[in-house]
Amino acid sequence: MRNFILMMMLLAAVACTDNNNRTDNNDDMEAYRCLEEANVLNEKEEHDSARTVLARGLGYENAADSTKGMLNAEMSAACSLSGDMDEALKYGRKAMALCRDNVELYVILCGNTGIAYRRLGMNDSAATCYKEGVEVAQRSGYDEGLAYLYNNLAVLYYEMERYDEGVEYSLKAKTCAKKADDEVEYLSAMANEGIGYAKKDDNRRAAELLKAVFGKAESMESTPLKLKVINYLLSACRKLGDDTSVDFYLAKGEQIAREVPATSIAVAGIMESKMNTLLERGNYRAALSTAEELEAIKQFQSMPPYKLLMVKARCHAGLGSHEEAYRLECEAVAMQDSVRNGEVEKQLSEYSVRFKTQEKELEISRLQQEKSTERARMLAIVAALTVVTAVLIIVLLWARLRRKARQQQMEIDMARKYIDGMETERARLARELHDGACNDLLALGMDMRSGNTGMDELVKRVQTMRTSLRRISHELMPPSFVYASIDEIAADYLTHLVKPDNMNIDYSLKGESWGNIPDKVSYQLYRIMQEAVSNIIRHSSCTHAEVAMTCDGTHISLSVTDNGNGGNVNEINGKGISSMRDRANSIGAQFEWTSGCAGTCIKVCF
């Protein structure tokens, strides 16, 4: 019943959507008005009135085929809800022929028409109808429709006493319903699963599932769902010997029957439950009476006629009327659908194989799609990683270029400082030559012209000038490290150094492998020592100084100390300390300078 209502809702939705496009066809407009009116009547369960209105709508011959298809579908639903399965089947087949373009409606029609076939005992036709609906639903991905059809297939296989396959389809219906988020269809599949267990005599499992479905149906106020399970729930409870539950759920069923309209198919369902309960309890006379009541309201019958005849035969047999029981059983067997013969059994098996093949094909298609999606995702990840890698490479190259540029700038700055130091040194030497040797020569020349100075004095002054010029030239001359190491050149310099008579300079060495020191390092250390000693002689006024060098093969240190009067920072900058620091920086050495009243100390470590 739930899907008959769903079909009516679909029809109403289509009618509302398309009604604005039918202003050019009066017959079509009138037919649509009938469709809308009948939909409302069916919702109110006034099915006879709905059928009258729909018959009038079908009388408009110029209505569009799509409109006629929906009118026939609505008529099929009204007939089914009235229990008139012959008419429901006739109008359902017409609707299917006219509504092929509306996938959702067509799938529901396949299910509803299949139900009509099944209730008329035409199970082979029902299977064909379900199969067609499954194929359409699978192609379109209509999971809710698939759940509905799988539920109907489960019921059909139960009718064929193929319970394992019925349970299998009920589980498929649960999967599709869960995917579609359809709670009612999910509960219907759960009910079918429980019914399958009941038919397989797994009564404890059946009772557990069906009680859960019934309870949920009560909370949802779903009468069709309660009616769907109550027969089998009662049967399972009876077989478990749970009479308390039997009486409880039978009372529930009779209460539901009193609440629904007397013309509802639900009444027949309740009567069927009551009949089965009475039959199981051995109350054959009451069961037979209920069966005859069901037979009298044939248009509302919920079970195939041959099954009702089989129940009556059992009742007569239980009452001792064996001849009548035999007659009824023969009539029931003759009425059964050809589905019992081997050919139809084989056909149903082929349908099962086709369903499974289609499902496998769909699963393969889904896996291929997932694989394509995964491949696209991996390509996207690879592309992203490539971009990130490229950006990182660019950043690293840029950082390297920046570092190289900074290094080059630092080297330029150091070279500039070195050059500035050299220029300062040259300026100092120029001043010494100008203020010292040049002025002394000028004075000497003037004294020689005047003749007032004695020869001894002139010789002494020439000797002083010679010493001064020799010291300056020694400072300017670069040392050669081809034939001597830093320790030997430093010793030679200090040995021939001209210094005041009251000044003593000691020289000490510690370590070996002086020849392993690079020439560039040796040269700069020599110039630093030369500058430091020169500053001591010119500015410190000390009486004692010491030059010490230490070498351990790869590292060398130089220290120059004196006991002079020290100096301040301004004096240091003017005495070549900045030049000594730049020379130390040019070879990556550490330079330290300390000065105070106790003297000055310069240390260089490389």
TrEMBL record:
Domain of life of the organism encoding this protein: Bacteria
Keywords recorded for this protein, A-Z: ATP-binding, Kinase, Membrane, Nucleotide-binding, Phosphoprotein, Transferase, Transmembrane, Transmembrane helix, Two-component regulatory system
Location of the Signal transduction histidine kinase subgroup 3 dimerisation and phosphoacceptor domain: 425-475
A Pfam family that the UniProt record links to this protein: HisKA_3
Matching InterPro entries: HATPase_C_sf, HATPase_dom, Sensor_HK_TwoCompSys, Sig_transdc_His_kin_sub3_dim/P, TPR-like_helical_dom_sf, TPR_rpt
Reactions catalysed, as given in the entry: ATP + protein L-histidine = ADP + protein N-phospho-L-histidine
SMART domains from the UniProt entry: TPR (SM00028)
Domain Histidine kinase/HSP90-like ATPase: 524-573
Bilayer-crossing regions: 378-399
EC numbers on record: 2.7.13.3
Protein name: histidine kinase
Record organism: Xylanibacter caecicola
